[in-house]
């Protein structure tokens, strides 16, 4: 049963990764998987069997969502964007209060919450997103895709940063999504490999580096790190709410939106327990 829950949670984390403006790491925190994932990556050999199965089941859910869910989520975002965003708001909203119980109510922690909010706000305001910057030089493309993999790993490890938004900002989001969408098209095998190898290599190096960094912060400054992360979670949720309610919607969208928000909230609570 726990393995099924891990796959389901990983599936929603994977979905969150491919929505611009949504952080998969924030959802991992709110699902209670973040600390375990960081520890499993950085201290894998301390419990090889347990860490292997944890990463296998969670990673399987993430992989299925990214490979096969990308077309589904893009369909729902194109057809029912308001309702889909409210569903994710429901998923994210249920666990911020329990997360706040991990810190003491003192001045430095409130200041770090504020810094987390400010950091996330400034990152989200970075954006006039660029167009595709890949050109004809395969060596430059390889380097850019490697850097994109590093950036996506950083966003995956560090809560509140949307890897998808970062890829859009770097101008490679469309290339990555098209590649993943055509992964089973063997006529494009060479082109897909030339995208996936540097991107995956960058992600692997990034995970090894950034996981150790965040693991160090949790082990030495756990409460302060959580305070900063709570600020990130709050701003991420507010950003998503703002994104949803700046869309065009009617009364029917609103009714269905709040139904799915409530369903997302209930699902998140169920998965947490």
Describe the structure.
- The protein is mainly alpha-helical.
- It has one domain.
- Helix content is 79%, strand content 0%.
- It contains 13 helices and no strands.
- The protein has helices at 2-17, 24-30, 34-42, 48-79, 81-93, 96-100, 107-124, 138-157, 163-170, 173-181, 189-220, 222-245, 251-272.
- α4 packs antiparallel against α5 (81-93) and α11 (189-220) crosses α12 (222-245).
- The longest helix has 32 residues, at 48-79.
- The model is unreliable at 127-131 (pLDDT under 50).
In short:
The chain is an all-alpha fold and 273 residues long. It has one domain. It has helices at 2-17, 24-30, 34-42, 48-79, 81-93, 96-100, 107-124, 138-157, 163-170, 173-181, 189-220, 222-245, 251-272.
Layout of helices and strands:
Elements: H1 2-17, H2 24-30, H3 34-42, H4 48-79, H5 81-93, H6 96-100, H7 107-124, H8 138-157, H9 163-170, H10 173-181, H11 189-220, H12 222-245, H13 251-272
Helix pairs in contact: 1-2, 1-4, 3-4, 3-11, 4-5, 5-12, 5-13, 7-12, 8-9, 8-11, 10-11, 11-12
| Class computed from helices, strands and strand pairing | mainly alpha
Please give the alpha-carbon distance between the first and last residues: 12 Å
Rg measurement, Å: 18 Å
Order of helices and strands: HHHHHHHHHHHHH
Residues in helices, as a percent range = over 70%
Strand content: under 5%
For the secondary structure, the number of strands is 0
Whole-number total of structural domains:
1
- What is the number of helices? 13
- Main sheet attributes: strand count, strand direction, barrel closure: none
Give the overall average pLDDT: 80
State the shape.
globular
* Low-confidence spans: 127-131
């Amino acid at each position: 049963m726990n393995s099924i829950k891990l796959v389901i949670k990983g599936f929603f984390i994977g979905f969150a990764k491919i929505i611009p403006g949504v952080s998969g790491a924030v959802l991992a925190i709110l699902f209670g998987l973040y600390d375990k994932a960081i520890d499993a990556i950085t201290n894998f050999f301390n419990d090889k069997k347990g860490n292997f199965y944890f990463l296998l089941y969670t990673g399987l859910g993430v992989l299925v969502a990214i490979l096969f869910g990308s077309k589904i989520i893009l369909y729902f975002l194109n057809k029912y964007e308001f309702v889909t965003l409210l569903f994710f708001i429901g998923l994210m909203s249920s666990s911020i209060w329990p997360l706040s119980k991990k810190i003491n109510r003192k001045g430095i922690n409130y200041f770090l919450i504020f810094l987390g909010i400010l950091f996330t706000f400034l990152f989200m305001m970075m954006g006039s997103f660029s167009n595709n910057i890949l050109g004809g030089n395969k060596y430059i493309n390889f380097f850019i895709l490697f850097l994109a993999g590093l950036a996506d790993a950083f966003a995956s490890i560090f809560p509140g940063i949307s890897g998808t938004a970062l890829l859009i900002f770097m101008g490679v989001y469309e290339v990555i999504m098209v590649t993943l969408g055509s992964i089973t098209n063997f006529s494009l095998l060479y082109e897909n490999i030339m995208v996936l190898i540097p991107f995956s290599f960058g992600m692997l190096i990034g995970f090894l580096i950034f996981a150790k960094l965040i693991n160090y912060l949790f082990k030495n400054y756990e409460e302060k790190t959580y305070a900063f992360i709570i600020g990130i979670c709050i701003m991420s949720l507010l950003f998503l709410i703002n994104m949803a309610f700046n869309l065009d919607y009617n009364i029917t969208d609103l009714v269905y939106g709040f139904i799915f928000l409530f369903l997302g909230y209930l699902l998140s609570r169920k998965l947490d327990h």
